[in-house]
Amino acid sequence: MPVLVYTESDKGGFKKNAFEVASYASELAKSMGTEVIALSVNAENPDQLGAFGISRVLNVTEDRLDAFNAKAIASVMRQAVAETNATVVVTSSSTDTKYAAAILAGMLKGGYVNNVVSLPESTEPLVVKRTAFSNKGFAFTELKGEPAIIGVSNNAFGAREHAVTANVESFSPNVSDSDFGVKSTAVDKASDKVTIADAEIVVSGGRGLKGPENWNLIEDLADVLGAATACSKPVSDLGWRPHSEHVGQTGKPVASNLYIAIGISGAIQHLAGVNASKTKVVINTDPEAPFFKAADYGVVGDAFEVVPELIEKLKEFKAQNG
Amino acid sequence: MKILVCISNVPDTTSKINFTADQKAFDTTGVQFVINPNDEFGLTRAMWFKEKQGATVHVATVGTAAVEPTIRKSLAIGADEGIRIDAEPVDGLFVARQLSEIVQKGGYDLIIAGRESIDYNGGMVPGMMAAMLDMNFINTCISLEVEENKAIGVREIDGGKETLETSLPLIIGGQKGLVEESDLRIPNMRGIMMARQKKLTVVPPVDAAEGTLDVRFEKPEPKGAVKLVDPENIDELIQLLHKEAKVI
Lengths: 322, 248
Ligand SMILES: Cc1cc2nc3c(=O)[nH]c(=O)nc-3n(C[C@H](O)[C@H](O)[C@H](O)COP(=O)(O)OP(=O)(O)OC[C@H]3O[C@@H](n4cnc5c(N)ncnc54)[C@H](O)[C@@H]3O)c2cc1C
Ligand SMILES: Nc1ncnc2c1ncn2[C@@H]1O[C@H](COP(=O)(O)O)[C@@H](O)[C@H]1O
Known about the structure:
The structure holds two protein chains of two kinds. Chain A has helices spanning 16-32, 70-84, 95-108, 216-225, 233-237, 268-274, 291-294, 303-321, and strands at residues 3-7, 9-10, 13-14, 36-41, 56-60, 88-91, 111-116, 122-123, 126-132, 137-143, 148-152, 167-170, 183-189, 201-205, 228-231, 258-262, 279-284, 297-300. Helix content of chain A is 28%, strand content 27%. In chain A, helix 2 (70-84) packs across helix 3 and helix 4 (216-225) packs parallel to helix 8. In chain A, the strands form four sheets. A seven-stranded parallel sheet of chain A has the order 7-11-6-1-4-5-12, with helices on both faces. A five-stranded parallel sheet of chain A has the order 15-14-16-17-18. In chain A, helix 4 links the parallel strand 14 (201-205) and strand 15. Chain A is globular, with a radius of gyration of 21 Å. Chain A is α/β, with parallel strands linked by helices. A nine-stranded mixed sheet of chain B has the order 9-8-7-10-6-1-4-5-11, with helices on both faces. A two-stranded antiparallel ribbon of chain B has the order 2-3. Chain B is of the alpha/beta class. In chain B, strand 8 and strand 9 (160-167) form a beta hairpin. In chain B, helix 2 crosses helix 5 and helix 3 (92-106) crosses helix 4. Chain B has one domain: Rossmann fold. Chain B has helices at residues 37-53, 68-77, 92-106, 125-133, 189-197, 234-244; strands spanning 2-6, 9-11, 33-35, 56-62, 81-85, 110-114, 136-147, 150-157, 160-167, 170-174, 199-203, 212-218, 227-228. The chains are: A alpha/beta, B alpha/beta. Strand 13 of chain A pairs antiparallel with strand 9 of chain B, so a sheet runs across the interface. Chain A: InterPro entries: DHS-like_NAD/FAD-binding_dom, ETF_a/b_N, ETF_a/FixB, ETF_asu_C, Rossmann-like_a/b/a_fold. Chain A: It holds the Pfam family ETF. Chain A: It comes from Robiginitalea aurantiaca. Chain A: This is Electron transfer flavoprotein subunit alpha/FixB family protein. Chain A: Belongs to the ETF alpha-subunit/FixB family.
């Protein structure tokens, strides 16, 4: 019966989404009148999950899992499901977790949905609300198979503090060589930057910025806000920015609290990937740009004038408001 | 090398999405269907393997006769043979089971699927197949090289990329990056003519359970009008973001 939640960590520290999914799982378990159990892998302080309502943690310490491996993580999750008899598994929507969760779903042959935006609207039957059609619609999906795997959308639920004492038990699943048929040989990642997936604020630039030499505007604005940087598809196709920054229907999905689009027209494929963001600000010279119809706040103006001004004013604001 | 490209038939990216009056289904009226963009990148990469390394390329779609134009389009782009599994693609688990059956019978070395279908955004079929077939799997794959039995793939990770080494048989969930945007092919007349002669096999589905069922759909709330801020008054924008939206 219990709800099992996979809490992701990186180099020993929990990721922000770990606290979000822990919060989601503990509230879900409460509404189902059942226990919530977290699975953590190589986290240094698994008891931190107690702050988010987790009273029991299966803690795995295994050197071979220091670098993420999807199949091995899926296999560890499967063994944790067997150990706990969990009927619901909660996971995040990070790239790594989605990779592992799909494998897990194939192993368990239960039901799997991701992009879930809220707690289930009913638990018997289990029906969740998720985005579909690239944010152009919502689907209410019944999870028929057991166990049910729920992938919670980033930033959709938030971390909700509810302190309990976490009892940490060590858990030693079988990790075998056959899990490592795919081996990581190199990781190329800017470690000092917030990622689009984790960011609460994303600052994004389009072709309106004219060229890569002007990207300091985007970066400086992102710096003041502690935001991740992103771009429209043509910007990455032109090689002005790396592909990993391309957002939209065919790029990375964005579900931040604040999305600032600068010199981006707002084509339907772009909007489809960023519409899940809660507040959208558009800066564009063209008052007819379609993005204004999808935005909460807009400035009709030249990015080269508006953005430097915005950076200065934000610095003053930050200085005053800490 | 024998490659199977799994093609999902989806509404064109510019489609307006509507649901039927009872909200129970996607309303396909007036909707143009295309090859799922993630699969189109994969299919184009498969063409490269065909032309440079002599691979054979088959495509498979789980769907009713309505998906045949999309399969023909894949053949016109250059795939050698098409397979249609004659069933409504109910959910990811069902589709993965059907495609796994095709893979097992056909003895493919490389299975190219997409990171996700842009309609139902399941993001699960290739991963499920990897588990069902116990094959190596690379998701969000943005580059793939195959030499004999060895494969080197690059996958997108949050904030960067990771290089992976593995061996065939292999499944990937591909996306933009697998080939350059400019390498995507629009079928030409000759391709379209040739596609008509190519083999398109229709096979019945195997029994398979479903894991999920979409019970109803909803459109997002219509957006209120945008609040415009004078570019001369950026302080107002900051105040709105701070006090009203509470995001800074
Ligand atoms: C199958 C398919 C999938 C696609 N997927 C995606 C996707 O995932 N993501 C994506 O982004 N696109 C995607 N696209 C492309 C999309 O259709 C648009 O072409 C693209 O989003 C446009 O990018 P842009 O807004 O940067 O450029 P443009 O459309 O050229 O817009 C530039 C904007 O900048 C403004 N501007 C110019 N100068 C200034 C200035 N000085 N200050 C302020 N504003 C200025 C202009 O008014 C204009 O609105 C896809 C297309 C297809 C066909
Ligand atoms: N009905 C289908 N027929 C063939 N392949 C499919 C089908 N549905 C999904 N796929 C493949 O699985 C990938 C991921 O789809 P999904 O899990 O539905 O988001 C797609 O990009 C396709 O490669």
